[in-house]
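Section 5: illustrative case.
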């Protein structure tokens, strides 16, 4: 099975409600859809959302990287020698993680198809189902409380609360309002998206602990580059701290793990450059006794299916943040992971199990 072509197109899918974090507001999911073809007639699919404030990748840069650098390097290569393919993919250019991730997941799709196995089994097969959390965008305390109640009523047991957009005292009011609305029956995890300073993070997390707000974890409280600051927060609070934007590569993970700068790591394919490197990050974390979550950007069910197959394959991945497709007005994917409320199930179809990705008219 040899690669004969790599095709791309742009995909735009409007969100049901604007998605707001400390870093950005999203009203439309924008991504590059990748289709890798082979001489056997099989096709592999991948997706790369444009997330310039996190990965630095835009639609133009993803498109250019795939068409002008990655495609010429990979066309003609054999899927039987997939280690060579991944080495070439990750060495052909610096950065451009989202472009690499989209091609990486399409290649893994094909490799698993060739093996006649669903990808999660090919990668390890630890589980075939999981439960996702649901994200509450940062808004007024009242609106966030109302959103939290609606997600609880929809059957979600874990809520990921976006904070860090403005004054941290307002964040505490938001969390109080949500906890008052949903009671103690729901897990609450916070994601500051680098929005807090070191001292205010320590002070505020301690205050929330004293108030008994029962926070499961706090994700990326400080700037991505501030590993020393991240460690200070981790060392001075009881609540588990998760590194997200601080960890793109296995090298980043090594720096966080060897300094014990965080208690947990959030792996995203768009940061890691795909499943190949994501596996290395998880292996390092597991060696150090650190559990991982697998998360995502604002992606369609295509990108999430690839992330879900990776997450399902590994025991050390214990948390799942895969709600993005539920935020979209249209489901463009045929096949792939199946949602039943908060529950996600992987099918026995070979590879990712995706047969087509429909286009949505962009207005």
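Designed sequence:
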């Amino acid at each position: 099975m040899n690669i004969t072509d790599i095709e791309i197109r742009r995909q735009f899918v409007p969100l049901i409600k604007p998605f707001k974090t400390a870093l950005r507001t999203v009203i439309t999911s924008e991504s590059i859809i990748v289709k890798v073809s082979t001489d056997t007639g099989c096709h592999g699919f991948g997706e790369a959302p444009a997330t310039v404030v996190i990965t630095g990748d835009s639609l133009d840069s993803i498109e250019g990287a795939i068409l002008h650098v990655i495609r010429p390097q990979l066309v003609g290569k054999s899927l039987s020698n997939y280690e060579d393919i991944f080495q070439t993919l990750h060495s052909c250019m610096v950065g451009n993680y989202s472009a690499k991730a989209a091609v990486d997941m399409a290649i893994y799709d094909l490799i698993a198809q060739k093996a006649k196995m669903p990808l999660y089994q090919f990668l390890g097969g630890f589980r075939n189902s999981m439960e996702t959390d649901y994200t509450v965008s940062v808004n007024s305390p009242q609106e966030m409380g109302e959103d939290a109640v609606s997600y609880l009523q929809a059957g979600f047991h874990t809520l990921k609360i976006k904070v860090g957009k403005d004054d941290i005292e307002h964040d505490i009011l938001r969390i109080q309002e949500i906890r008052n609305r949903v009671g103690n029956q729901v897990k609450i995890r916070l994601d500051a998206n680098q929005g807090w300073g070191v001292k205010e993070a320590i002070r505020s997390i301690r205050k929330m602990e004293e108030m008994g707000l029962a926070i499961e974890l706090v994700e990326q409280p400080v700037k991505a580059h501030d590993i020393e600051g991240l460690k200070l927060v981790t060392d001075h609070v009881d609540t588990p701290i998760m590194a997200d934007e601080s960890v793109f590569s296995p090298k980043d993970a090594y720096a966080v793990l060897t300094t014990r700068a965080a208690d947990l790591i959030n792996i995203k394919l768009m940061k890691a450059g795909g499943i190949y490197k994501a596996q290395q990050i998880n292996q390092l974390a597991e060696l150090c006794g650190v559990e991982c979550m697998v998360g995502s950007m604002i992606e369609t069910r295509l990108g999430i299916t690839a992330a879900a197959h990776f997450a399902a394959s590994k025991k050390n991945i214990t948390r799942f943040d895969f709600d993005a497709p539920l935020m979209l007005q249209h489901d463009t994917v045929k096949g792939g992971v199946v949602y039943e409320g908060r529950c996600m199930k992987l099918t026995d179809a070979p590879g990712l199990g995706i047969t087509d990705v429909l286009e949505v008219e962009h207005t």
